[in-house]
């Protein structure tokens, strides 16, 4: 067993604090990673606070993990000791279902779906015949820790052109926005709308611009309008939009694709009239019930509203390579892990521009009980 | 001017009764049609009762119109006197916008959109700069009348293989379901779900089966389960579906496409877990605000919810030809126009199987004031 240390919380209402624990040694197909950096995702907070109702405690978040391979199993061929690698939201999947076989591990249809980097494996109540949560032997512990052990194909290569700490948020925020833009055909000349300008919206806009799209960012924050301009996008205050069709708005019927990155329930109806005929608005930020959508508006120009969940392994490698090639990265703010609880408060208030990344060198085993 | 007679209502709360009126003579590009049959669509009732808040009175419904050409303008080339033709929901469009030029007249982006067969032209308040309804010179009168005058390209050819009275409902109910099935790629081997088994669901299921799809019909009416079997589909009671993912339901993750034909607000969430990865549920029956959709479910398998509005002229001709070729038609019940007000009540109660068609020979000019 590997002696490990990380930051975890024991309840929905307590702070994260150091926890000593053990990880299994790498199996033949697995690699051991010395974690160097881990991004802080809004999902970490939802999960730590049990806001999705399925949290297993202790809960040790972290699914934007970058580090160096320190050991490899006997059958590993993709990585070698010393390689810089990244791990996102998944550390395994069923490998048997059609999506897994076709490389859509993030849409795994196995009985437990994909194995989450933290808070897994389990069968959630809504998927269980007896409607109770079923937990496996392990409650997976995520990347807020000094060491991680994963199947080699779930570890992505960090390209030389990316600063490792800036690569971390690409493993969740990056691929969560890259994957739908790719799936719905964003390309040079596309008119793309991005709703929300936080950790997801920032990287989505930069990537869309690098793809050759013209990007409009909708934000409720006046002060972010200048920042939109600075990255080459047009910022539009959300309050300029009407609830229904506004023939005086030049943005009406102008977008090939709109991506909402807002991590909470919000009204989609002001954005629907902005879609071109046959275009789709994708909601990747809010995974709860959507506010009622006006189907007369959808029908009038054959529009749709769709969901998208992170991205598959191939897309994750692609987004790392794409950002390295185009010199794109999040604005990041490095964090001492001892400040993680304050950082959560700042994320919840929307105060961080645009992504916290924990410097795992600040994690000391001697701080744990 | 042409002296005409039809059935119209003067208020949202009054019955339809005979009305004498005048139609303009056919312009060079127009044809005059002696109306023989007109289908009764649920939309007729919504419009007559001002349930969409935009009705201009007198309101003379009818947009499933079949009849013989009795006169043609000097420039007409498509039709000749004596031809059997049909007119659906549209009698013109702007002809200038991209959708019109690309043959998607039903998604016309002109300032007034397409010209409705009845209750047009107008600029509805939500599209008008001053937020008031704007009416043109005419309030178009629909097919509950003895004569109709339309641009020749908005009159479709009724194939010899179709009974004219059975062709009538194809002009709205038929194309409204055919168009989304075509757009979203229903083909031989597709697994198709149809929600609701009225005038739209009946023809949608028959057409999908003729395309080679396997069809499941979801209905709240126990007695319709046998009828589903009779046309070659599987009937499933809606109450068998759970609100959330049901791993014990063999229909989970099994549909390439689901079409809701229900003409009123209903919960979409029980159907979303039945969609395959990347599949879409299209709502063509209810044009109001949809009930809240669970985006966690949409995101889990990259599903979407979309709208679709009738179909273009090419699709309308195609659906007439397709149904003639495959021997498909609605179950229709012929109606004396004097019984139209009772028929509306039956439609509202869901008592008609599956479409009323008015026999316009029952309309007598001498009944009008």
Automatic annotation (TrEMBL), chains A, B:
Keywords: Metal-binding, Oxidoreductase, Zinc. The keyword Ribonucleoprotein does not apply. The keyword Oxidoreductase applies. InterPro entries: ADH-like_C, ADH-like_N, ADH_Zn_CS, CAD-like, D-isomer_DH_CS1, ER, GroES-like_sf, NAD(P)-bd_dom_sf. Pfam families: ADH_N (PF08240), ADH_zinc_N (PF00107). Its cofactor is Zn(2+). GO terms for molecular function: alcohol dehydrogenase (NADP+) activity; zinc ion binding. It comes from the Bacteria. Residues 11-358 form the Enoyl reductase (ER) domain. Belongs to the zinc-containing alcohol dehydrogenase family. This is Zn-dependent alcohol dehydrogenase.
